[in-house]
Amino acid sequence: METVIIQSLKKVGDKGPMKICCILCDQYFTPDKKQVKQIRKHPHRIILCPECHERIADRVRKRKRQQPLNRHPEG
Length: 75
Fold this sequence. Notes:
InterPro entries: DUF2197. With 75 residues, the chain is an alpha+beta fold. The chain has one domain. The chain has helices at residues 33-41, 50-66; strands at 5-8, 18-21, 28-29. A 3-stranded antiparallel beta sheet has the order 1-2-3, with no helix packed on it.
């Protein structure tokens, strides 16, 4: 598992804005308040930029729609 690259725009320990680097596209973005809280609490989690997150979510939704629901396999 890869770590999140966090670059604070102010002094270390300051609660100011931060920039995060997406691990898929290497694009820097500013996370929303909920993501900032998650990053401070769990700094080793993987965070994606909103564009990559939406792209992956669309692919997952499409795959889920195409799969048949076989919850109880026979046998």
